[in-house]
Write a structure and sequence with these properties.
The two termini are 33 Å apart. With 494 residues, this protein is of the alpha+beta class. It has helices spanning 38-43, 48-52, 54-61, 129-145, 183-191, 195-209, 219-241, 291-310, 314-325, 328-343, 353-366, 371-378, 390-393, 399-413, 420-428, 438-451, 455-464; strands spanning 20-22, 32-36, 72-74, 78-80, 83-85, 93-100, 106-112, 127-128, 151-163, 167-177, 243-244, 266-267. The longest helix is centred in the middle third of the chain and has 23 residues, at 219-241. Helix 4 (129-145) packs parallel to helix 17 and helix 7 packs parallel to helix 9 (314-325). A hairpin with a 3-residue loop joins strand 9 and strand 10 (167-177). The chain has 17 helices and 12 strands. It folds into 3 domains: 12-180, no CATH class; 185-336, no CATH class; 340-428, no CATH class. 41% of the residues lie in helices and 13% in strands.
Length: 494
């Protein structure tokens, strides 16, 4: 394999050594490619053919360190379910380095499941097949939905068995990210009162992610505002597709504003704001309803780390940072409301629209309506006819409730000068037909783990690559689970 295949241009490794631990990935016995994301590879200016050959697979498995790589495990801390952990870090991931993609954007290339590091905390440093497939499926589905996210370049079998509840096949995921800097990265140095490191890190983030802030009068306060804006937009995106992250710890909040660390994540079928899937979220801290408030709490923690950089006068720094942090609810609501109005086909926002939209959600929750199907089928309804209403009414336990709402909805649509076709087209661009439904993901994992059958995995990934398009012959992927197929809990896999 050509040693220059990756064209690394590494920046994080140039930071002081206390930011990371330098070490190579741990080799695995019998690596075998599961899937390569060829489209993403080409966008990263990589040759898919080279990555698919024996030498390429050796790199993707961690058995070979390519020329130009600076393998390292990043240090960070974090609040996990509200409890402070002063040292976390990459316990099973190795950052190989960075490349510049076809858009001129710097991207991390990381191997997840690459073996023990100084941050493993008694863990084995490995990943098992199920969580690797889940992250590949869901992260690529999120990208297709247009939601900022880390990406999956490749998945490989390791040829070994890993002990979790039982012995399970091992795998490695090659993850691509705008960066892997987290709120928890800042908290790591703040806890150590390492102001020099905080300044270096903040300057690094500004240069890499927010270059427009260079030269700002108060760059660190501006950084806080920029991160808040990206997170407000991101969490609004989650809410609008019914996505539940499951582990919104501060070490799982990206400074780049991407969805990161897909563990017990899931998409809702039946809509209810209190929905929780994660098996370790016993109190519902990270329930669907709570995601905006948790993001706000996490960002307050980020603000706290920046105080020494904002002003030497702590009282003044706190006042200024608090003012910026308190803009989160308004920013989130603006993003969320704009998206929700588009989901129900409104071209602009008027008095009474919020109540109309919230009423639909309330009716869905009370009548156990499927979140994704309700909005998708709403796209087919016309302003002046009700012949297609049964497709939506049938999703509600009490169809009359939907009928009552639909009367008000049509009255509102009548006030806009748009054709049904224009509105329907716009609605289909924001209301997906296909999401990674939990029972489908579980079926894929079972087929791969129990029968070494990857055909369902490939088929699901291909369907989810076009979530907003009608796909004749694949309509059954839209269907919610039968009662016996319902997934009530999801698991992290660590």
């Amino acid at each position: 394999m050509d040693a220059t295949v990756f064209h690394f241009d590494n920046s994080y490794a140039q930071l002081p050594e206390r930011f990371y631990a330098s070490l190579p990935p741990s080799p695995v016995p019998r690596p075998r490619l599961i899937r390569l994301n060829e489209e993403l590879a080409r966008h990263l200016k990589l040759d898919p053919g080279q990555l698919c050959n024996e030498s390429g697979i050796e790199i993707l498995a961690g058995n070979r360190v390519p020329d130009g790589a600076t393998p390292l495990a990043m240090a960070y801390a974090g609040f996990q379910f509200g409890g402070w952990v002063p040292q976390l870090g990459d316990g099973r991931a190795i950052l190989l380095g960075e490349v510049i993609d076809a858009d001129g954007v710097r991207r991390d290339i990381q191997l997840k499941g690459a073996g023990r590091t100084p941050f493993s905390r008694m863990g084995d440093g490995r990943a098992v097949l199920g969580p690797v497939l889940r992250e590949y499926i869901v992260s690529e589905a999120m990208a297709a939905l247009g939601i900022p996210t880390t990406r999956s370049l490749a998945a490989v079998f390791t040829g070994e068995k890993i002990m979790r509840e039982t012995l399970l096949p091992g795998a490695v995921l090659t993850r691509i990210a705008g960066s892997h800097v987290r709120v928890g990265t800042f908290q790591y140095f703040a806890a150590r009162r390492d102001v020099e490191a905080l300044r270096l890190l903040a300057d690094y983030v500004i240069t890499r992610h927010y270059p427009e802030l260079e030269g700002a009068d108060e760059p660190y306060l501006a950084l806080l505002g920029a991160v808040i804006d990206r997170q407000a937009s991101l969490v609004a995106d989650w809410q609008l597709v019914g996505f539940i992250h499951g582990v919104m710890n501060t070490d799982n909040m990206s400074i780049a504003g991407e969805t990161i660390d897909y563990g017990p994540c899931a998409f809702m079928d039946t809509f209810h704001p209190e929905t929780v899937f994660s098996s370790i979220d016993h109190m519902g801290r990270y329930a669907y309803r709570n995601q905006p408030s948790i993001a706000h709490w996490n960002l307050a923690g980020f603000a706290q780390t920046l105080l020494p950089l904002v002003n030497d006068d702590q009282e003044d720094a706190v006042a200024k940072a608090t003012e910026v942090v308190n803009t989160f609810p308004e920013r989130f609501q603006a993003f969320y409301a704009a998206g929700l109005y588009r989901k129900i086909g409104l071209a602009d926002m008027r008095e009474g629209d919020d109540e109309l939209a919230q009423r639909l959600l309330s009716c869905m929750a009370d009548n156990r309506a499927d979140f994704t199907l309700t909005f998708r089928r709403l796209c087919s309804l016309k302003r002046d006819g009700t012949e297609a209403d049964d497709s939506v009414r049938g999703l509600f336990a009490d169809g009359a409730v939907f009928d009552q709402w639909a009367v008000r909805w049509r009255q509102r649509l009548a006030s806009e000068d748009r054709s049904d076709l224009e509105r329907q087209t716009d609605m289909r661009c924001v209301n997906p037909a296909f999401i990674p439904r939990n029972h489908r993901v579980e079926q894929v994992i079972r087929a791969a783990e129990d029968d070494s059958n990857l055909v369902p995995f490939d088929e699901l990934v291909n369907v989810l690559a076009a979530p907003y398009e009608d796909q004749p012959g694949r309509e059954w992927f839209e269907n919610p689970p039968h009662p016996e197929e319902v997934v009530k809990q999801t698991f992290c896999g660590t």
